Amino acid sequence: MTLSILHISDLHRDSSNPIGNQVLLDSLERDRERYTSKEDPRICAPNFIIVSGDIVQGVMHGTVDGEAKLKRQYEEAVTFLNDLTDRFVGGDKSRIVVVPGNHDVSDQKFRESLVPVNMSGSVDRSVVQQLFRSNSAMRWSWNDLSLLEIENWETYKQRFDAFTQFYEDFYEHKRSYSSEPDQQLDLFDCPDLGICVVGFCSCHSNDLLNRQGSIHPDCVADANTKLRSVARSHNPVRIAVWHHNTEGPPAESDYMDPDVVQNFIDGGFSLGFHGHQHRPQYLDTRFRHGPDRRIQVISAGTLCGGAAFRFGRAYNIVEIDVEGRSGRLHVREMQNDNLQLPIWGVRALPPNRVGYLDFEFDDPPVPFTKPDRVTVELAKAQELFEDGSFQDAATILSALLNDDDLARPLLLQCYLRLGDHAAVTRTFDPPASPAEVIALMDALWDTGDRERLSNLLKTSFVSESEDVSISEMREKYLARLSK
Asked: Whole-model pTM?
């Protein structure tokens, strides 16, 4: 089955946006009709949707009735995404992944969490240094040249309240979104599609005075733990979704530390999707810290915001052959200049000259399997044997004879080292291997059981064997018994 992902980002839903919901949906449907039936090559109709942040335009602090306006933006976003889900994936909301972007954070709640730092006298150097520390409570405002500090962290976390409500409303309360930074992720396991998608929040500690993208480290760790659990039932291709890009110009700071992507690779993610930079992009990112792994990172352009230089508004269709570990990226860019009535079409992604980009991606990592009881006991017996504790090893191995074939040869060696001929005859008669035959012959002779030894020599396993070791022992004991 081909997985076809509709990847949209930076919707910036707002009633003042020139592209209304119905016009936008209609334009996307008309474009789907083109690329599935009229263009060459044909593109598979999307059966999965990724929305990588900036769902709404957002509202600046000080806006009259700002929180109500933000609520109305989210209501418009819910309406759009509900209709998009109905028209593209048959209303199945388990087939749509939504993550927050920096515009989805309430600036009003952020400002309410701040208090000014008195700068009338000298400011301690350590206070200034805190501005540049990870997770700092300090903020600098260039607009009024003031130093501010987050005093109320509970209020600061409430900057996600509007998004949290939107998320629960859209998913009809079957999914929820936490305001706690270390819990801001969601997992979409799709065994029938062979994928598992994790939606991350790259707005940890992000606000209008600290624009850098960041994912809470605990969220990355929690995702890896959950994925290891999923891999025990099926081993899906792992896909990460977040908002911020991982590179930017020197004068900007609103992008995410690229080393986070290295952690995604280490966690076995094969594909990544993001937005924010308002231009499509494809990156083949290698692992720098160990095995030869990589992740294919795909960025979508903005669907309804201001496009980046040399790009128009755009979105992606990504076709993925999950079993074949290959994919094809199609960029769909706005072809006309009327922002109220968009027409989408093919856009070659530089440096490509064709309207698509083919790529391959890595297999998911082989899941770690916790050793079972038998494996653990065998390892313990082997360790005892190597330490010379043959009797203790034999005690463990004798209990495993019916559970694992590897126990037999090691147990035989234990009895031989102990010189326990009675145990050999008791355990390895009838024999199941040439080594057991030879050991049993010696044990029967040493214990004086000539009758059983004579009968053993007559069995087809011994008399017809072409094994040189068995034939030599056979002739040896036939000669002894004939005297």
From this structure: 0.78
